[in-house]
Amino acid sequence: MVALQVHFLLIPSLLSIMGAAQYVMQDAALLSYIDQRFLSLEKRLEKCSQDLLEYVDEFRELSKAVLARLARLSTDKAELKGEVENLLTRVEHAQRDIDYFGSVTDSNACVEVHEDLLKQQLLEEAEEKKRLKLMFNASCDHMLAGIRSLKVVKKTGGKHGSWMKDPGKKHAKIYLLSGSVNNVILEFANIMAFMENNQTLKARRVPLPVPWEGTGHVIYQGFLFYHRHGSLNEIVKFHLQRRNVADQMLLPGAGRIPAYQLSPQTKIDLALDEQGLWALHAEPETGGNIVLTKINPVAMAVEHSWDTPCSSRDAEAAFMACNTLHVVYNSPSGGSSRIQCVYDVLGALNAHTNPGLHFPKRQGGHSSVHYNPKEKQLFAWGDGSQIIYKLHTEQKV
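That's the OLFL1 protein sequence above. Prediction below.
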């Protein structure tokens, strides 16, 4: 009985000892695994260190080779530079000898060639003038000699604006375009209706799909031609009766600077004379001088262009009359307007820089000046007043 009790007491102890032995074996296996992993990592680190040392040695060898090559190139470059300089010196000496012998032996031939080139150039210029005269299909035998009188027709609107008749139509309608940016034209039956006090109530209002910019617009043969507001150099052709845009074009080089320094709101100034439609503008490439362009109003295309000697500095307006540009100058504070530069595109007149044509009996500036070739008058806008100037002309010499 006692032996049986002892047996039962030993069984738990044996089980406990067996469990502890099992845990010891598991820990030993884990330690063995960890040891193997560390050995593997140590071998890989050792290989990495060896590879790095090999890379460093290889890079040093490459650096030495590159530096040695660069040193040789520098030496070769110096030698090559000396050879090139020597060759250039010899070429210059040979060129001087060639020029000397050429000038001695061929001087007469060179003179003949230059004379032929000059004759050819003169012939081409004569042909160009002939072509321009045929293009204009008319001859103007008169020139502006003075501005005889003025008539203040009305005072309406602000500082900037323009007013005009259509020289291409038989009617006597008056058109008023107030402001440097607007999209409504006022049309009056005649000048008497325009002069009435309540003229704006009787006027026919013509809205535009896009507004104008500046004061350089013209009305010709039933169309309004104007610089489109917000565009650099787009010219719009608007049909006044149908009230739609008939055509448009871009004027090369225009729109970057004002056409006239004293009228900065106008980048492109359109003009009419006996030959039709013109455009005036200034360009930085011409030093601010005015560029004159003949436009075909039907095709809306450039026919010819001229760089004039007339400066836009201190200019306030300009107009065309009989193929001739007339630029109006003033002082920045506003004084007596005067024409100081005249340019005839056909060369019948030389470009005059100070013809001394003054506007009569008036102090102040002009926002716009437009020539009416049908009535031989100037329609001007000065400080809110609508003015007509009568012109005095003489025969061209």
